[in-house]
Amino acid sequence: MAEPVRRLFLALWPGQAEVCRLDHLAGVAQAVGGGRRMRPETLHMTLAFLGDVPESRIPDLCAVMADCRPEPFQLEIDQLGYWPANHILWAGCRQPPVQLGDLVAGVHAALQRVELRPTRPDFFPHITLLRNAQVAQALPEPEPIAWPVGEWLLVESRRDAGGAAYHRLAGWPTAPLPG
Ligand code: 2AM
Q: Which intervals of this chain are the motif HXTX 1 (predicted)?
């Protein structure tokens, strides 16, 4: 019998305060671009999308993530953007912090150590706010949203009646361990 697989990705998940502000921003964006707004509880920034991973690989995956020791950092969400090819309207950072790049590089290197790889090697930090948007005009400049990042997560994507539902499987702190 084929081994069960889980659809997995690694991501940053905003806290409640940031979710409220991002959801508000999604409303501002929707007034311009229409489309379907992401449910607040699904707002996130993907670091690496893995797709279907055999269940038996998950302990190894968690072990190498636990070995990453990235610094804590803060994201400034201060940009709206639109991809006409997939009709995604997203929020992001004009100047992503160096520590975000370091975290992504560390996560990708850790994945290699257990012979897992993201479906795409490139990484563009974004939070999808709207799907099926149509934008023909300039997007407004948002009020910056400060998002202190203290952890990153392993998340499973499952389909349910309401679309994709995301389930946290594990998380690791960005702060270095004391000592
Ligand atoms: P998106 O929001 O830009 O569509 C869970 O589905 C997360 O993984 C989303 O952030 C989604 O990005 C991303 N994702 C889904 N399928 C992907 C793929 N094939 N390659 C890269 N990222 C993907």
A: 44-47
Report yes or no: 29 and 80 within 8 Å, Cβ to Cβ. Answer: yes
- How many angstroms separate the alpha carbon of residue 67 from the centre of ligand 1? 25
Give the tokens for residue 20: 């409220």
In a domain? residue 178: no
User: Residue 179 domain-assigned?
Assistant: no
| Helix, coil or strand: residue 40 | helix
Give the model confidence (pLDDT) of 48-79 as tens digits.
999 999 999 999 999 999 999 899 999 999 99
The model's pTM is 0.95
Ligand 1 in contact with 9 (CB < 6 A)? Answer: yes
- For all residues of the chain together, what is the average pLDDT? 95
Q: Is 83 in the pocket of ligand 1 (CB under 6 A)?
A: no
Alpha carbons 19 and 145: distance in angstroms, whole number: 10
* CATH number reported for the structural domain that contains residue 29 in this entry: 3.90.1140.10
Query: Among all residues, which ones are annotated catalytic?
Result: 44, 126
Residue 69 is assigned to a structural domain of this protein: yes
Give residue 110's region: left, alpha or beta (phi > 0; psi -120 to 50).
alpha
